[in-house]
Every structure is written in structure tokens, then in C-alpha cells.
Amino acid sequence: MKIAVPKEIKNHEYRVALTPSGVRELTGRGHQVVVQAGAGEGAGFPDADYEAAGATLEANLATLWQNAELIIKVKEPQPEEVERLSPDQILFTYLHLAAEESLTQGLINSGATCIAYETITGAGGGLPLLAPMSAVAGRMAVQAGAHSLEKAQGGAGILLPGVPGVAPAKVTVIGGGVVGENAARMALGLGAEVTILDKSLARLEALDHRYQGRIKAVYSTADTLDEAVRESDLIIGAVLVPGAAAPKLISRAQLAEMKPGSVLVDVAIDQGGCFETSHATTHAAPTYAVDGVVHYCVANMPGAVARTSTQALTNATLPFVMALADKGWKQALADDPHFLAGLNVHAGQVTYPAVAKAFGLESVEAATLLS
Ligand SMILES: NC(=O)C1=CN([C@@H]2O[C@H](COP(=O)(O)OP(=O)(O)OC[C@H]3O[C@@H](n4cnc5c(N)ncnc54)[C@H](O)[C@@H]3O)[C@@H](O)[C@H]2O)C=CC1
Ligand SMILES: CC(=O)C(=O)O
Ligand SMILES: [Mg+2]
After folding, report:
1. CATH code assigned to 131-299
2. Rounded to two decimals, what is the model's pTM?
3. pLDDT tens, 326-342?
4. pLDDT single digits (tens) 310-331
5. Between the N and C ends of the chain, which has fewer C-beta atoms within 10 Å?
6. So where are the chain's domains?
7. Closest to 60 (Cα-Cα) out of 2, 6, 3
8. Which ligand number lies closest to the CA of residue 303?
9. Is 96 assigned a catalytic role?
10. Is the ipTM of this complex over 0.90?
11. Based on the number of CB atoms within 10 Å of its own CB, is 343 exposed (0-12), middle (13-18) or buried (19 or more)?
12. CATH class for domain 2-119+305-369?
């Protein structure tokens, strides 16, 4: 199969969809991989390494896109990329469609087969192609939050661990999944006082057991959220309802209850954000303040640590890329119901119910498209 790997164009996005090692696995199976010249530079993978792995380099964007049967990316396609898609092509990348109606419409209009990393499920539960980036973003959320608490960033001037004689900061993480647990681990390691709120009792039980009371694992209700709002110095939003828009858990009115200079890090911003006052920001201008509360809402956090993230992402995506390339999309999805859960749009139809529901569209059962 002819596979294209374009250079990412989102603001400060330095990841690339495949490492040279990933390319080598594909070319070794007889596939043709075309990498945009310079695509891996930001992640520390020079063009020469891709050539050595058997890829062809292409500088002309139109040629790169036109000739591809399968396009692999990292971030959701930007408008100029959506324009380049055609009906016979497969797009495999993060999509986060429930947060972006115009992108959804663009992909419907393209006629392409669009498979989202983030809705592919795992045999043992979870979302295996989202998990590695969630681990990165969860760990980064604490770095971002700690930095934002500094006075020069508009924060309250609080050091997360405190010092002997001064109490540590209070950190609340809403959503105790992959992002949430990684954030909590980092905050705990830095010496903060950490609470996780979740709606899943099974998840709270697992966290309580794993951290032996060093993290408070609390059921999320309007009351426990109110308490978090009043008392926390840093709140990290890490909830997910797979494929759907994130629920809004802290309202604008509640910001008045927060301490001045406290910080909200909304990792769930790629699904629309879980705070009413969140809007997506970029690594170039990551924060803004509303009512004295600093908001950090970068939708591609792992792009900042592109080397680590590119390796972690390729580890997770490669088996699926190989299945698509070896078998074609219909057979690859027919053989694996977890992979089938990744199909979001095909031939002008939405196939993921939560995305269709977000925009009042009809959805088609993905399994009916495979014969
Ligand atoms: N901004 C960025 O750069 C990145 C953002 N993300 C995003 O972070 C979010 C979280 O991802 P994961 O941790 O992998 O998901 P996950 O599925 O592992 O965890 C989500 C948790 O949220 C909980 N939850 C759902 N609704 C809730 C509610 N109303 N109240 C409390 N808890 C609730 C679930 O029970 C679950 O434990 C996703 O939107 C994901 O796309 C992930 C990576 C990078
Ligand atoms: C998951 C996601 O949105 C990211 O890694 O950028
Ligand atoms: Mg986005």
C-alpha cells in the first residue's frame, strides 16, 4: 500500500506519525512509505534516517497527498489538509470530532474513510491509542500547572510542595483515568496534597488500593466539585466520555469561589474542555485568565515533548497501521471489533454515534459497511 506521512502543521506540533523504525517495519513488508521532507526533524528524526529505513522523501505536498492510499498523521487535519483528502483515501490520526463541527463536516464532504486513534478500544478495556499520549499529557499537566502558579504567569505564587513549615498546595484532578492517574502521580511525587474525583467507583477503588491512601480518591458530585473549587490551588480536568464532547463540570459562576491566582489545566480540551470558561490555546500562548483564575488549555500538549511522544505513539499505532496496509481497511476492521470502533466517518456518513449525536446527524452502523 502507498502510505504518506505529512509533516504536522498545527501550532508548535513537532510530533510525526511514524518513527524511522516504524517505517522500516512497513517497508520490510513490501509497503511504499512516502515521508514529507523534514517531517521528523522536530522529533529528532532526520530525513536520512527515513531514507535508510526505506522511505521515499517528497517535498511537494500536492504530490504527497494525491498519490497516497493511506495517510497517517498525529493531529486532526487542519482545513488545508481536509481540502486535500479524496474519497478513495484512508485517513488514520487523532480526530476528536465531537469537539469540532466544521472538521466533521469537512471530513463528511471529503468522502474519505476516517479512522480515529482515540476511539479504538482495547481488548482489556481502555483506549490503547489514546493512552500513551494521555500518559504524556497527564505528566505534563502538573509541570504546566506548577509553572502557571508562579506569580509572573498570573498565578498565586505558590510552590506545589511548599517547604518545611509551609503547607503544600492542594491539587485536585477531575477524572482518574490515564491522564488523571499520571497527573496525580506527578503531583504526589512533587509533594502536593492530591485528590482525584471520578464517577467510576471501580476506578476510585483501584486508585485507592494502588496509592494506599496517599491520594484521596473521592466520588465526584456537585458537592465534592464545589469543595474542590473552593479549596484547590490547581485543578486538572481529565474526564472523558469516549468520542463525546466533554461534560462541563465547573461553571463560570464557580470561578468566583476560587482563590485568586489559582489554576485550571483543562487536558480534556481536545474533546471541547470540561470547564465552561475553557477555550483551546496553543503552545505559543498557552494561558489566559478569567476572573483571576489562570487557564491552561493546550489541545496538543504532547507535541511539546515530541521525541518522547513520537516514539510512544508509534509503538501504539504501528500494529494498526500494519493491519490497514496489509489487509485494506475493510478486512482490517472486520477482523478486529476494537479497530472497528475507530471508524468515525466513511463515504460521507458518520459511523460513530457520539459524534453524530453531538451535531444532530444520522449515524450509520460501522459494521454494515464492511461487506
Ligand atoms: N490536551 C491534550 O494534549 C491531550 C488531551 N487528552 C485528553 O484527556 C482526556 C482524558 O483522557 P484519558 O485519561 O485517556 O481518558 P480515560 O478514559 O482513561 O479517563 C477518563 C476518566 O474520566 C472519568 N469521568 C468521565 N466522566 C466523568 C465525570 N462527569 N466526572 C468525573 N469523572 C468522569 C471516567 O470514569 C474515567 O476514569 C481526553 O479528552 C483525552 O482526549 C489526552 C492526551 C493529550
Ligand atoms: C490525544 C491528543 O489530542 C494529542 O496527543 O494531541
Ligand atoms: Mg483540535
Report:
1. 3.40.50.720
2. 0.95
3. 999 999 999 999 999 99
4. 999 999 999 999 999 999 999 9
5. C
6. 2-119+305-369, 131-299
7. 6
8. 2
9. yes
10. yes
11. buried
12. alpha beta
